[in-house]
Amino acid sequence: MKKWKDKEEFKKIFIRKSHVAWEKDVRDLIPNEVYQTVAFMIRDLISEDWIKTNKMYVEKKVKQVYYFSIEFLLGRLLQSNLISVDMETVCREGLHDLGWDLDAIIPEERDPGLGNGGLGRLAACFADSLAALRLPGHGCSIRYQYGLFNQRIVDGQQVELPDNWLVDGYPWEVKKVDKAVNVCFSGNAYMRPDGEGNLECVYENYHSVRAVPYDVPMVGYHNDTVNTLRLWRAEYTREDVYRVLAKGNRHEAFRYKDNVQLISRFLYPEDSTEEGRRLRLMQEYFMVSAGVQSIVRHFKQKISPNIKVFGHYVAIHINDTHPALVIPELMRIFMDEEGLPWETAWDITTEVVAYTNHTILPEAMERWSIPLFKELLPRIYLVIEELNKRWLQQVRNKNPGDEAKAREVAILWDNQVHMAHLAVLGSHSINGVAEIHSQILKESTLHAFYSCFPERFNNKTNGVSHRRWLIQSNPQLAQLIDSAIGNTWRKHPEHMIHLSAYAADTAFLEQLDQVKRIRKNILASYIKAEYDQQIDTDSVFDIQIKRFHLYKRQLLNILHILNLYYALKENPNMDIVPRTYLFGGKAAAGYGEAKMTIKLINVVSKMINGDHCLEGKLKVLFLENYNVSLAQLLFPAADVSEQISTAGKEASGTGNMKFMMNGAITLGTMDGANVEIHHEVGDDNCVIFGLRADEVMKYYVHGGYSSWDLYRTNEHIRMLLTHLVDGSLGNGNYAFQMLYDSLLDRNDEYFVLKDFDSYCEAQKNIGCRYQNHYKWLQSSAVNIAHSGFFSSDRTIRQYARDIWHIKPVEST
Ligand code: CBF
């Protein structure tokens, strides 16, 4: 790996580069130009290794994995890349000499709008681990021009503003014009005899879109591996525009250009309209077809002309069902372009593809209307139709007369294409993302498939990159860990377990307390600067940060806070451990209840923070526009990690792991990876409450729960719910009617009221534990020590060994 010798060399290069890039004296640069200059300097350092890595994979003919994901929530890359190339200090000192502060430059980078939640952040952690472990693996996604949205809170309500994250350019990307491919949509496809007794496909009158890749380097930590995240952008070609111009008028040509660019314009176009759904399906196929075509082309040019050995060299992973069209796309290429018969094409496809499921929520299971699908992707539809026919034939042969069975596993049913069924059928491996989630997949969600192919199902518990979430986000804690157990954990996170020996070491615990204090102060300064609110760093920082969804139960959290508020008003001398409750997260623009929960939090926050009697006891804040950069400030400062989803609903969660790594205590249900966190640290070091997943399931199946009964018998619940709609929260009567209805008229689908008492107890328990501060710090240390298991390095090693069959590649 090329490096800057020292800060003098850094400065020399910086000055030269900035002269060329900006035609300015260093003194006159603006911060964004400083950021871009440093980014280009890092690109310079890694470029040789980037080329070498790709060459090495080809020369050694190693098997490579391609991870397809509709999102890669990368976060800023400047600091993480500086850390990876081990140049942060040199850069910091060099910039300082030139009159710049690296910490002031880092925020100049906009968070890339390439993802929004857990699935996207997981993909980013995986890319990070692949490079860190020298594994030959690359990402494939879309270069969205606009991210989800920028969230602002106006009058307590979420307002969505465009996230034009590319507005200043993106110095990490490299456009590869020569690697562009064409993706075909619409037209007509049909089968006809080929004259040799077989059928061949005719696909005509389609229109094609140019897919142009933009490559972003994924830099390995302290090694010389640089993998690639390939992001596809939809572009029109001049020839295509002329073709349209020749047929119609200028307006047609403008419309054509616009329609093409629309494909990669927005992350998650609104899908409540037919137009939105059409665009989303186009995006999925666009990413898949571009990605698969480029993999096949690379394979044939660089690895082997014999397509039959494709599976020996290529693994493709589909991150949830959004990229599931990889399966029919491979079939199309193998049959139509490579001339393989169906059976051979199918064998290679299933040898190559593996699928991870990330949700069991029925509404999140992707389905496409068949008429839309057929119109947009006629050739792909023919493949799926044939696949469905062959598959149902097998199922019916095995289960004569059992149409229910056929319905359960069909890809095409009820005029819809069922993407999860396609994904399962075309993959040699199907995994869930936490033990309990994988179990639910086998026992319930995908049970019918599990009984057909039990050997394909497995679990891979999620993990997070300890480099971003500990080394980068919390350098103070990282240094403390070094001073206790040495620094081998940085490359081998499982070594963090050696910290267990320090859980009873008073000196260590005092230092741990100091670190937490520093981090709480950093967050408090940010909050003071952004919100003009003073938060008490002696209070418990209790944090819930994640997407807003009814099943994640931010509502339970805020109802408890409201209850606490009323209790304190009634009894001002009540003995409580001071709390600061912090929330962050976005609600989907069209999700009424989630947006109303945000509003409720803001209304309660205003009421509590404005009440001087509560000063020093209770504070509630909603931090707007939660993203990776804000998360990096929040996790290190947390005392309590709120993981309170309805048991059985959260596939895994990964925020829970980031909190744990930073020494927060989990307050959670037995859901997702909380179960494994509990298993690691035991009852003494986390607080578990609420219904278990099997109890939730029993209520769903057999009934027996009435939220109205609770309303009648539990006076706290009655009082809280009444206040939601009687105007006492100062927003007029019926202000929160939608939430009230979800809890009562819709019988509290997510068991918020059912778990309410248990949650209040758990909160009390947290207070008691915090008062015994020594014990609290011990628990914090135990959590950090056991967090090594939740490093994505462990997860990726398991994928590499069990699913992809790839090995680390050492440079020679
Ligand atoms: O597996 C990663 C994450 O994916 C989700 O965010 C998702 O988009 N389905 C799940 O909700 C999380 O539980 C999970 O950790």
What are the segments in which pLDDT stays under 50 over at least 5 consecutive residues? none
End-to-end span in angstroms? 13 Å
Count of individual helical segments: 33
The Rg value, from CA coordinates, equals 27 Å
Largest sheet: 10 strands, mixed
Mean pLDDT: 97
Instruction: Give the total of beta strands.
Output: 23
CATH class category name of the domain at 474-700 and 753-796: Alpha Beta
CATH superfamily of the domain at 474-700 and 753-796: Glycogen Phosphorylase B
Q: How much of the polypeptide forms β-strand, as a percent range?
A: 5-15%
How would you classify the helix and strand content by structural class? Answer: alpha/beta
Bound molecule types: ligand CBF
If classified by CATH, what would the architecture of the domain at 474-700 and 753-796 be?
A: 3-Layer(aba) Sandwich
Lay out the secondary structure.
Blueprint (H helix, E strand, L loop, with lengths): L6 H16 L8 H29 L4 E5 L9 H7 L3 H10 L4 H4 L12 H15 L4 E6 L7 E5 L2 E5 L12 E2 L5 E5 L2 E6 L5 E6 L2 E13 L6 E10 L2 H10 L2 H13 L11 H30 L6 H4 E6 L6 H12 L4 H11 E4 L10 E3 H7 L1 H21 L4 H7 L2 E2 L2 E3 H7 L3 E4 L2 H11 L1 H6 L4 E3 L6 H7 L2 H11 L20 H26 L8 E6 L8 H17 L8 E6 L7 H18 L8 E6 L4 H10 L2 E4 L11 H7 L3 E4 L5 H8 L5 E2 L4 H10 L4 H7 L1 H11 L11 H7 L12 H16 L1 H14 L5 H13 L8
Helix pairs in contact: 1-2, 1-4, 6-33, 7-8, 9-11, 11-12, 11-14, 13-14, 20-21, 21-24, 21-32, 22-23, 28-29
Bound molecules: ligand CBF.
The site of ligand CBF has 14 residues, from helix 6.
Organism: Megasphaera paucivorans
Keywords: Carbohydrate metabolism, Glycosyltransferase, Pyridoxal phosphate, Transferase
Protein name: Alpha-1,4 glucan phosphorylase
